[in-house]
Structures are given as structure tokens and as C-alpha cells.
């Protein structure tokens, strides 16, 4: 009995250590899981919206001198826009993002989607209408800035510093007049 009383503090210490380690591991793993799910949701959303906006840019490439987007036939592009594939991809990504993201990230994602949708109006105008290049450039700039804002909100949520430049591959400052790097 004396041996048990002597060893009891050590047993209690080991037990508390195991419980503490398990609790810490559970909290850390849960935080890591949430962070990874959030990252995946952001990535899925930006990829879906990029495919959507690239299709629109391709449909209007023939109207935009110096466009770097490969042209997409208007009828084929309209069929893809009308089909469920792109809309479902964007909507599914949006739903997942709404479940995992904070309000700032969701608001920034919404602004990015609205800006991309406004570009669709230019693509749906067709070949018969006169293309408003200035209107396109202005709306494309809003989309790039909305994407930068989305990235900033997502990076902030993940504890990553903000980018000091535009996230655009072809525009240095995100401005409509900037040139390909």
C-alpha cells in the first residue's frame, strides 16, 4: 500500500500528461483540418471563377485588340455558359466557401462573382452589337481588383501577409492600361 501511495503522484502526473497531450493534439488537428478545408474551398472557388471568366474572355477575344486569351467560338461559348457544368462548379464552390469562410472572405468572393458575371453581359451581346472596349476594360479591372481583395481576405484569415502587388499574371498593377509582363 505504501508503494502505491509513493507512486500515485507519478501515475497522476503521467495520466494528466497523456490527457493534456491528447487534448492539445485534438485542438491542433481540428484547427489544421479547418485551415486546410478553408484553403481548399478558396482554391476551388477561384479555379471555378477563373474558368468562367476565361471562357467569357475567350468569347470576347476577337473584339479586344491584343487579347492574350485564346478565342472561343461565340456559339460554343454560349452553349457552355448555358450548360450546367460551369454554373454548377461555381455554385458548388460558392456553397462550400460560405460554409467555411468568415464574412469578409464571403463578401470579397461575392464581389468577385458579381464582377465576373458583369463581364458575361459583354460576351452575351454577340457579334452583332458594337463591343464596348472601354466598358470591358473597366469591368475587367474591377474583376482583377475583386480577386485581389478576395485573396487578401483569404490570406488574412489564414494568417498570411497581404501581397504587395496585383495577383494578375499579365497586369503589373491591376490597371486596365498595364501591359503583359
UniProtKB/TrEMBL annotation:
Keywords: Membrane, Transmembrane, Transmembrane helix. The keyword Transmembrane applies. The chain crosses the membrane at residues 6-27. This is Uncharacterized protein. It comes from Promicromonospora sukumoe.
Amino acid at each position: 500500500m505504501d508503494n502505491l501511495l509513493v507512486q500515485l503522484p507519478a501515475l497522476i502526473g503521467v495520466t494528466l500528461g497523456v490527457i493534456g497531450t491528447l487534448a492539445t493534439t485534438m485542438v491542433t488537428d481540428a484547427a489544421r483540418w479547418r485551415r486546410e478545408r478553408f484553403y481548399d474551398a478558396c482554391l476551388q472557388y477561384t479555379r471555378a471563377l477563373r474558368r468562367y471568366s476565361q471562357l467569357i474572355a475567350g468569347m470576347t477575344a476577337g473584339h479586344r485588340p491584343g487579347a492574350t486569351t485564346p478565342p472561343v467560338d461565340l456559339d460554343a461559348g454560349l452553349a457552355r455558359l448555358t450548360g450546367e457544368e460551369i454554373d454548377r462548379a461555381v455554385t458548388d464552390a460558392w456553397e462550400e466557401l460560405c460554409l467555411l469562410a468568415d464574412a469578409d472572405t464571403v463578401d470579397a468572393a461575392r464581389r468577385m462573382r458579381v464582377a465576373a458575371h458583369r463581364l458575361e453581359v459583354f460576351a452575351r451581346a454577340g457579334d452583332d452589337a458594337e463591343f464596348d472596349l472601354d466598358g470591358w476594360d473597366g469591368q475587367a479591372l474591377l474583376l482583377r481588383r475583386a480577386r485581389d481583395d478576395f485573396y487578401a481576405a483569404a490570406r488574412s484569415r489564414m494568417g498570411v501577409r497581404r501581397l504587395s502587388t496585383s495577383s494578375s499574371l499579365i497586369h503589373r498593377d491591376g490597371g486596365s492600361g498595364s501591359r503583359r509582363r
